[in-house]
Amino acid sequence: MRRRLRKPTTRPKSLRFVLPNPNAYFVGRDKEAVDLRAAIERSSLSVVWAYGGFGKTSLVLQTVHRFFKTHARRTAVVSLRASESPMQALADIVRGACQVAGIDSNPWSAVRGDWESALAMTIEIVDETGAWIFLDNLHAMPLRERDDLLHAVAKYARKKSKWIATTRERPLHTDLDAHLFCLPAMSDDDLSRLVRARLPSASERAVAHSVKAASGSPWRLIQIIAAKRAAATGADGILAGLSEASCAFVKTLAVLDGALSPQFVSGLGPAPSDGEMERLERLGLIEETPAGYRLHDVARPLVEAEIGQPVIDAHAPDVARALAQVDESAVAMEAIRIFLAHRERDAALTLLRTRDERLITEGYGTQLWHLLQSVRDERFSRTQLRAAVAAADPLVLDIVREPDASEFDARLAWVRAVSLRQRGASLGSVARCLADDAVKAKKTDIAFEAGMIAGLALRLSANAKAERIVRRVPSGTAAQAARQMALLAAIVGMRGDRQQGDLLVAKVMPLLAKLDAESLIEVANRICSHYLYFGLIRRAREFFDRWLPDIERRPVLTVGDRFSLVTFYCVNVFGGDFRRAAALRDETKVLMALSDILRLAQATLDIPLDLAVGNFANFHERITRNIELCDGTPGSNHNRKWFLACRVQMAILYAEPYSVSEPGVESNEYMGSGALHLKATLLLQAMHQFDDVPTEIPSDPEFDGIEDEQCWLLIARSVHVLRMNRMGLAGRFAHTAVRNAEVNGIGIVELEARAALCDVLCASGAFRELRAEAGALAKRAREAGSPRFEHEAEFFVFAASKDSAKLATLMMLARLEDVAPVAMRRARCLLGAAANRDRVDNLVLAAIARRAQAFRIETTRGPVAGEWDPESWGIDDVERCVVLPGNRVVDLGTRETLWKVLAALAGNGGMMETAALFSSTWNIGDFHPIRHGKRLHKVIHDLRLLIEDDPARPKRLITTETGYAFGQEAAVFRRVLRDRNR
Q1: Closest residue by Cα to residue 683 from 643, 710, 664, 707
Q2: What pTM, to 2 d.p., does this model score?
Q3: Which of 97, 145, 144 is nearest to 123 (CA)?
Q4: Distance between CA 799 and CA 787 in Å, rounded?
């Protein structure tokens, strides 16, 4: 008789996270297993560190299965891959922890891309589940995030959870030394036992040869056995039997420290065939990594011993010269290292003169400094200086001093390097001094470059002085003249002189086609910045697309490229293309972090982007961190004001009182467009708040010629007159703001203006027009990629519907605290829950209440009347449905009996005795527990299957001593017809 398989009661775990069985051929390592067991028991984190092929993973599997059998099933394996981002790795850790704990839901969605918050939540979830996490191949994670993860786990993880990691790279953080388990090479005795376990018939000589060839690595020994070369390897050498191309390839890899990409293999000599490559891997000589091929750690000493160090040294310069021809910075760094290691300084200097600028701007400054710091050659001093400053290491900067006055090339390198790290009066004065000295020494090129840097640094804090300096610099070439006029356009434009700025831009335009690539990038970036300052977003986008169309797809990015990427990011943020802006931010965040200027510039755009799309999780903390960053960076006062403006805007969205006299905000000194944005934002705050807040409207000249600020002013005026019930004038102001924003392509302001227009239409009772305008807002929000304004539009569609729409819509909006706070607070007010509200909210909600007189929403039962809880749920009498958390809607329109039971409970305050509930549902006066109880129990059971998360442990429909009731843990909202009483 066939045995029937039982259906599994729970969903099976993904094999991806299940701890594998230990190796069947595992031998030896007894002492190491005992020591690792003690390390795991001692603390929450254990990091197994060893070279590749030493058996780290096998040791962990053996130790856990041998000494911690009860925890093996609760251990989630997360194999890290270099192709994954650190955030993906954290997400995998959470998924694995939830799986081994038997949790179906994944709380990862609560983290919205913030690394620190995601890391904290990951540790918290693992602790709550009590899972064990095995992080295999931790070296695949980037260095910074890897050390952050290990340090956070060591400091904050509780001993209930365990973290075990394997890595080929020793952690740099000294606090992790106590958690480090260094795995040594395998002993010859253990290797011999491993050979005999796999090849019982092997001779003593074959065993000895195999052990010698393995060089302490069990992985390499297995490769040797699998290839059946045990005897030959020991007798004839590690390269015996290989083709000439394979031997040459292995010799080349012996010269390199890093991995060699397959695309460069052919450039270094005859490339082995695919079959030969596979054979080299099987023999344990090479390994393929995401970065390319590299010599295996345990094979390197064997290869060096067989080939001979003199042969490798002689071959190294040829390899370096071949690498120098490759147009990739990582490859160039390897070529420089080889040249310097083998005293080929002339070749290294030649390569540096053409690549040092690019290497530093691409983030190799620190590595370059370490390569050059011991070189005692004056020819390398310029690059040493720039690399030292780019490294931004205080110890390095203590060693390297500002060059002497007579060293003009070195001084210019110093000024350029410092300009990447700070801005302000100090940099401006140093650059101006260099320009003056260079003019006296008739070094016109240096004078020009220094003068341009001085003007760029001073344009924000001393605009007039910056203009004088830039006009005075000598421009001898057409490219220099174009750069000079473009910077002047940006300077005079930022002073508010749009006419003069436009004239300078017109003079530059005919020269653009004649400029070299680097000059074109700089000039185009300045012109585009000029357009952006005056809110001419559409013109900026068209200009950018014409002159810098492929900037985001270039494989190599110079400093100018990165500034242009920030400008392009700005175009997309304020132009309302939020999806493209977010993708650009994610792709370039690491690149921008290499410079204080670029990092702050990107941060000032990250915040308004988050405001526009509705990314408010930990928003206040992010603004605070950015303000602190500004406080610690010279010349960043205008960035600080921008962040304060965004903080005020956040207060508006949450209807929270906010002081309009923030210290450092009220200053009238020129600080760029951010200051004007701040004035308009503070004005909006005043318009939305209470009667005792001043409502003075700024005059038009304050915003003269700046299109986006004019739109903000129109929005502010619309709100101001709306409060005075001048609906027609408020609508005209809002319409004009929408039209102007559309004409100039200011998408981010267009969305705000459309939302303000919807407020006016709703408050005035123009619901037909509101329905059309809400549809337009929803369409524009979808195109832009803004969930916040999509939900705002959804609220206005709700308001415009005759029957006040559905309870499900209200409850969905009420849960959007971190996405659409305006729609959220208005939805909660309509539900009867407590929420902040401003004067505009009062007008909008009053209009909706007048339109929906046939319906009302009441709180049936809950812990505290009027309190909102994410677990709140609702009953819609009009739609005959139940609205559950997670936006789940259960339709009971065709389930008459189930609906009657639920409606009876709701109509009786959420609680009824069994007899009364039965009589109300079936209209039977006498309730008999034996005859009628089963019928009622069946209905209650069916209801629980539909509305409970876990019907076996009901929380929403509970059993009391006398009957049934709604649970007290969360409020129950109900929409009822006013002319019905049930």
Answers
A1: 710
A2: 0.62
A3: 97
A4: 18
